[in-house]
Design brief:
2 copies of one chain form a homodimer.
Chain A lengths: L3 H8 L3 H9 L7 E2 L5 E2 L2 H15 L4 H11 L7 H34 L9 H7 L18
Antiparallel strand pairs in A: 1-2
Chain A binds a DNA duplex through α2.
DNA sequence: CTAATGTCTCTAGCAACTATAGCTTCAAGA
DNA sequence: TCTTGAAGCTATAGTTGCTAGAGACATTAG
């Protein structure tokens, strides 16, 4: 059995984050030692590694919750898991498209800056006037995860 | 003079967001009508449009605060503004790189899923085992803005 | 045995809003 | 003029995914 610290190091997750996952029900309540400290099995480590990996891939905790409950039912169709992954892929693709446009706009902005004073600064000017932009980066989906 | 609603529509910013910007000092306190309602000038509209545009380009409110205070000093060098824009460009580029890796991994995952049952699902399997991944998307910078 | 480290709970904070409740003000129609 | 409905006001709490701190207890190395 692992203490919370060992578990965290093994899975690459910080200790308070593990407690947080338990608190929101993403991890089951851990067993406790005589002195009330959390103890974790190999299985718990696997589950946490799963969460960690899915987070790294940008899945929300809600999506991970669903994926975990699916992975607990090995006999069911994987259509649902597939759908979640596909949705995440779409998310990532749309963010990618948006970021690509942003990058182009920022590059344009930075290139045009001749380095004079603020009054002549293209950075400030472009920010103040969207019509100076080449691409349509308006009202984009603002994101939360990587 | 514009009411807060008109201002919001003109700038493409929601009314509560405008009040929030005022609250955190990004917008100056608005003038008030006899009945205590906020009233905005053309200048206020420009300032809000600037903020909106910068947000669309992914600048944080902190960065925008700096850019705004710079834009109020037209005689100074634009080096600082330039630096902020360049930092933002770097940010966007690093997010882009990360997202590109994520996309590849998600595509692999989704492609490999044969559509059977959970026990055979590549999506679940790959999530459970990082070593099945092609790229290094581990411990990436998790972001907040677009 | 003691000191250092690890763990415990609880609360509050971060960004950047969004939503709700319960009130007042305003503009337009009857 | 009255009334109704939209728009405005304040204040507070919620969102996501953690992170940081306080103050107390547990464990372990020397």
């Amino acid at each position: 059995m692992l203490t919370i610290g060992k578990l965290g190091t093994s899975a690459g997750v910080k200790v308070p984050t593990i407690r947080y996952y338990e608190q929101i029900g993403l991890l089951p309540e851990a067993e406790r030692s005589a002195g009330n400290q959390r103890l974790y099995s190999r299985k718990a480590l696997e589950r946490l590694a799963f969460i960690r990996h899915a987070r790294d891939l940008g899945f929300t905790l809600e999506a991970i919750r669903d994926l975990l409950s699916l992975s607990d039912k090995p006999d069911q169709s994987c259509a649902a898991a597939d759908a979640i992954a596909k949705a995440q892929l779409l998310e990532v693709e749309s963010r990618l498209a948006r970021l690509t446009a942003l990058k182009a706009e920022l590059e344009r902005m930075v290139e045009q800056c001749a380095g004079g004073c603020i009054a002549d600064c293209r950075v400030i000017e472009v920010l103040g006037d969207h019509s100076l932009c080449a691409t349509d980066h308006r009202h984009g989906a603002h994101e939360t995860a990587a």
